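The methods section describes the discrete structure representation at length, but only in general terms. What matters is that the chain and its backbone geometry are given together, residue for residue. For illustration, here is how one protein appears when written out as sequence plus structure tokens:
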Amino acid sequence: MCHPSWGRARLAAQRLSDLARLRRVRDRIDREYARPLNVETLAADAGMTAGELGRSFRLAYGRSPYAYLMARRVERASVLLRHGGLSTTEVCFAVGCPSTGTFSTRFTELVGMQPDVYRLRATAAAAAPRVVRQATGPQQTRVRPSLATST
């Protein structure tokens, strides 16, 4: 019969192995967000079922693999909308979204405004004149001599 601590050690090792697989899935999403990815393919490559990957990923990272992928795409799209000269449709396809409708819906859910509105506000903020505050250095407080010497 096995010692009880061996079972706990085996469970801990399995948990670490599962977390390593989930980290590899997350890293792949981070790296390949612009490519067509689906949960079934990610799960198969990690040696898991799609349901198992979804449950485990949500427990580890607080959202499903698809939600994580869309958040990564929206994050990259916001950078492209702020700095690039691409249209919203071009940005949509550049970050790997297959549909402009899905992209616009997810962007609005995560950012709080439509991609076109986001671009307009970002360009307006970039074009606004910036006021640079002159550094004055640390402020010194003077101690009145009458209070400093009276004891």
